[in-house]
Amino acid sequence: MSFCPYIAFDGNCREAMTFYAGVFGATDLQFMNFSDAPPGTMTEDFKDKVMHSQFSLGGVPLMGSDAPRQLVPAAGRGQRLSRCQRQDRGRPRLWPSV
User: Is the pTM of this model over 0.85?
Assistant: First the structure.
């Protein structure tokens, strides 16, 4: 089992993830904007914001997105952590216990 960091940005996800990918030498940086989602998914002012971004860092994805201001944690108050797991028949009972 591993954990995958998912960072919520306050409107600067594209710049931050591009910076981090450059710092770590990642070559697989990807972005998906809210404008790529079905209509009505987000407000008009968010259409050019990042809905999801990701690159690999030592085999582990670093993920991020822009989030509405009320959902972005205040500095020093934590972030989201997404658990990554291969689908495995030997672990079906793990999710209910999390």
Answer: no
